[in-house]
Design goal:
Elements: H1 3-9, H2 36-44, H3 58-71, E1 75-79, H4 82-91, E2 99-103, H5 108-120, E3 124-128, E4 145-151, H6 163-172, E5 176-180, H7 185-188, E6 198-201, E7 216-220, H8 223-236, H9 242-273, E8 279-283, H10 293-299, E9 306-311, H11 316-324, E10 329-331, E11 340-345, E12 362-366, H12 372-385
Parallel strand pairs: 2-3, 2-4, 4-5, 5-6, 10-11
Antiparallel strand pairs: 1-7, 6-7, 8-9, 9-12, 11-12
Length: about 400
Amino acid sequence: MKTATRLAHAGRTPAAHHGMVNTPVYHASTVLFESLADFDASERDPFTGVHYGRLGTPTQFSFEAAVADIEGAHGCVSTCSGLAAIAIAILSVARAGAHILVADNVYGPTRKFCDGLLARYGVTAEYFDPLIAADELARYITPETCAVFVEAPGSLTFEIADVPGLAATAHAHGLTVIADNTWGTPLYFDSLAHGVDLSVHAATKYIVGHSDAMLGTISAVDETRYQGIRRTAIALGYCAGPDDVYLGARGLRTLGQRLPVHEANALALANWLAEQPGVARVIHPARADHPQHERWLRDFSGACGLFAVELAPIDRTRLAQLIDGLDFYGLGASWGGYESLVLPVDPSHSRSAKTWQTDGPLLRIHAGLEHIDDLVDDMAAGLARAGL
């Protein structure tokens, strides 16, 4: 089955819902049972079937089945945000006194979770340069190490770790490999085929695709790890809202049509920006000048709409002149929606294994689904306002 067909059909069972094309939204807390025998049976196995709203509804199970199908996973668990998915994935394998290895370019809240809540419960996170050679990872591994967490590329600085190489080293030492695959999406980076055991997505972004829902997913490579994430999510009380799950399922159907537009717009915009005198550098993995471009060609089948630009040195006032007058780029966190975004970022505050430094401001840009000519013209006017 081709990807486009799989996206259109995965997880859908119209016959089970009176012929409805889309699985309906089940708003539920209490679930009633026909008999005491049925209730007793559910108590014996509370992790399968529909027993209570927090434990899952047909809406949730349909969405999870679709994501698992697309990722080639044994199973998927959905939750209320991308960060919740990250926390569940890590907590499913961590224990008091454990040690986890984390790539230095991960999403900022991932680092805050590791250095905050995890540390409070006796789990130590150690950060490593995402660009180390795969065999160098072994020198960080201790008897207490349980997992390696990577994000490739990082969503601020866009380094691409050698995921299959790092995974091979991790597996040789019996470790679980967790990857935040939000940038690559299930379509452009087959994380499980590259050695990842738990593939995490902030489905809030490209899967939902419309900036109107909070959602996360974790896909597991096998039954044991699937049971680990499901039981952890249930123990913590994490569950995704039914309307958000429905929007995730709806967004999934058009992911294959939206992503190529994001990719084309971002690459065209990045190439144009690289030619502007006020731009010091463009950081986009699909461009030949990216330091890990060959690795991107090896491991990825496409690129999303997110990249970064370092401007020539300017003060905050001139940066505001650039940003505040933009018509088609919103100023806000997140990405993956239909709209374009721009966000000034400073990764230097969230690096410890490797320093990050720029001379001018760093802008993270998300290219939406607008016409590329409008995006270029708008940015050109912004650069002119800032005197770049």
